[in-house]
Structure formats: C-alpha cells, structure tokens
C-alpha cells in the first residue's frame, strides 16, 4: 500500500508557528511533529511506501524524515517548484504511482483507518473516494425564507448539518488521465469534473476523531487534546 502526503503548502493561516517551520513539522504535545504521527499511523496500518510532495521549506522536511527507515517505510520525494494545487503534484508523479493509492494532507490529525479507506476505494471501483466528516453549524439568528416581499417561512436559530472532506482520499491512477502534468489542478476541479461523468466519487463516512490543523485555534486545540488522545492517535504505532 502506497500513500502520497501533500506537504508543500506555506501554512499561511497558521503563522507565526510556520514562519520558520513547515506546517507538517509543527510539534504536537511537545513530543511529535504532525507528520511523524501520520507516518507512524501509516506504518502501523500496513503501508510500506510513501511519497512526500514538498515545496515550501521542503528541505527541512526532507532532513527530518529522511528515507523513512525509522518508521518502516520507503519514502521518496516529489519537489513542487511552484504551487500546483491539491491534485497537481500527483500529475508529475503518475508514472511512479501504483494503480490505487492513498492521498492525504500533511496537517491532518485523526484516528481514521487509512488502510480501510484504501480497501474501500478499491472495492468501490470509483475514480475517487473521499473521507467525510459530519459538521454542524448553528446560526445565531432567526432565519427567514422570502418570496419577493413576502415572508413564507421562519426558523429560530436553526442548525445546519453537512459533511466535509477530511483531506484524505483514495485515488485511482487512471483518474489522472487527461490532465496535463506541470499545470495546477485543485481537488475542487477534479471533483466537479467527476460529477459530470457517470462514475462520480465515492464517500467514506467517518465519525471518530478528526482535526484539520489549519489555524492557530486548531493548533492550540490539538495540543490541549493530545494528552488525552495520544493512545487513540498512536494505537499500534
């Protein structure tokens, strides 16, 4: 099983923590970098190889991770000279990738079963499998439904339920066919293209622990929760 970790972003939203460190290497609980946790999880799940797509401060990631031997992984690198979006880096890697593989952001903290995501993707025959998580937004206002100048419905402080992408995907190499290597390609573009076909993406619902460390508040929460969630996040690792 092979995984591609997207670790080339500048982490602008997480500054000042990412001023001198790439986001995947910011420490969690003063012991582990986010990326170290992810690599330990992948190894424990049975993955044997991994490609790190690096860009901003990539030399620091490469110096820290090395060849992956300490985690029992064979790790190679893809250098992103200019921003290529979420999926763009994979186009340059296409010939190095297996028929199916896992793709994930390098700043995700979760106890998701990565092996099961890939297994489910293979069984689904879908071009793309998206790990999803339930979110709820409470609107602190009375919401009006209007028809021209008439109010036709009213809801007091409703909650909106929806599912979001976790930043973890199962992907088939053939899904990348038709796209030009070297050009930017976002996850949103790929999904919209697939929705136009008769073979849309597959959803993998997850309700465990998940935190996307994109902002300082998320990072502070991750550190505050790590002590109680350590055994969950590093089980078997």
Describe this structure in words.
- This protein is α/β, with parallel strands linked by helices and 237 residues long.
- It has one domain (2-132, 164-233): Spore Coat Polysaccharide Biosynthesis Protein SpsA, Chain A.
- The chain is 27% helix and 32% strand.
- It has 6 helices and 13 strands.
- The protein has helices at residues 34-44, 58-65, 88-93, 114-124, 187-195, 216-233, and strands at 2-7, 27-28, 32-33, 49-54, 74-79, 100-105, 108-110, 128-138, 142-147, 150-156, 159-172, 202-206, 210-212.
- The strands form 4 sheets. Strands 5-4-1-6-11-8-12 form a 7-stranded mixed sheet.
- Strand 4 (49-54), helix 2 (58-65) and strand 5 form a beta-alpha-beta unit.
- It starts with a strand and ends with a helix.
Order of helices and strands: EEEHEHEHEEHEEEEHEEH
Lateral arrangement of strands in the main beta sheet: 5-4-1-6-11-8-12
Mean pLDDT: 87
Compute the gyration radius: what is it? 19 Å
Largest sheet: 7 strands, mixed
List the helices and strands and how they pair.
Layout: E1 2-7, E2 27-28, E3 32-33, H1 34-44, E4 49-54, H2 58-65, E5 74-79, H3 88-93, E6 100-105, E7 108-110, H4 114-124, E8 128-138, E9 142-147, E10 150-156, E11 159-172, H5 187-195, E12 202-206, E13 210-212, H6 216-233
Parallel strand pairs: 1-4, 1-6, 4-5, 8-12
Antiparallel strand pairs: 2-3, 6-11, 7-13, 8-11, 9-10
